[in-house]
Amino acid sequence: MPDLSVYIGWDSREDIAYQVAKTTLLENASIDVDVHPIKLQDLIDQGVYTRPVDPLASTEFTYSRFFTPWLAGYKGWALFCDCDFLFFGDVAELVAFQDPSKAVCCVHHDYVPKEGVKMDGKVQTTYPRKNWSSFMLFNCEHPSTRTLTPELINSQTGAFLHRLQWADDSEIGQIPEEWNWLEGWNTKPSSGYPKGVHYTNGGPWFHNWQDVEYSQVWLDKARAIDPQFVPV
Questions:
Q1: In this structure, how many other beta carbons lie within 10 angstroms of the beta carbon of residue 43?
Q2: N or C, where is the chain less crowded by C-beta within 10 Å?
Q3: Using CA atoms, how far apart are residues 221 and 232, in angstroms rounded to an integer?
Q4: Mean confidence (pLDDT) of the chain
Q5: Beta strand 172-174 pairing with 104-106
Q6: Cα torsion through 109, 110, 116, 118, rounded to 10
Q7: What pLDDT does residue 74 have?
């Protein structure tokens, strides 16, 4: 058994982003980690994902991220993150936040994006607790987390899911901001690096998003994975 199971949202338009997130997470991990992509089509093919297409959904994992506890068999702790991450931190440090009284732990952002459009032209929507669900450490055995059944995920509103209304407020633990550091929003550390850089508005895989923090690190990782990589 791995020390931590990680599920990364996968989007068919951004496979290289997934590969960089996975590679940098594993390179920095001092514990045994297994990483799985959450692929929407796989869940559809299994007959467990039945939501209609949401025109406001900006990625293929907008809702499928909440299948993480189900995919983990409602056992132990499991981490979900978006694919647009670049990791500098060791996920072993997240073990310190595994409080059995919490259903889920995340960075409690107070984020109100300025842009009306994000990376690939998708509309940037604003809502309470925005970006809380982009990096979630699930206590898969917690009673509130176990309510995240395929039936509930397929039928509930995006607001209910993303605002973590399936858990009581007291059951939502807090992780330091450095683990879901929003590029272009959070302040750059005076020394060192954030643990997890989140390119929430757009990342270096887009040709018009090169002028972002740590872009050269991301590009070097991408080209090490795929020497033919060029931003789209």
A1: 21
A2: N
A3: 16
A4: 94
A5: parallel
A6: -10
A7: 98
Q: For residue 96, count CB atoms less than 10 angstroms from its CB and return exposed for 0-12, middle for 13-18, buried for 19 or more.
A: exposed
Q: pTM (2 decimals)?
A: 0.93
Are 113 and 135 in contact by the 8 Å Cβ rule? The answer is no
Task: For the chain, count helices (H), then strands (E).
Answer: 6, 11
Q: What is the DSSP string of 101-129?
A: T-SEEE---------SEETTTEE----TT
CA-based torsion, 8, 185, 169, 165: positive or negative: negative
Report CA-CA distances (Å) from 173 to 82, 93, 96, 204, 231.
Answer: 19, 15, 11, 31, 37
- Terminal-residue alpha carbon distance, the chain: 38
The pLDDT-based confidence of 1 (bands split at 50, 70, 90) is confident
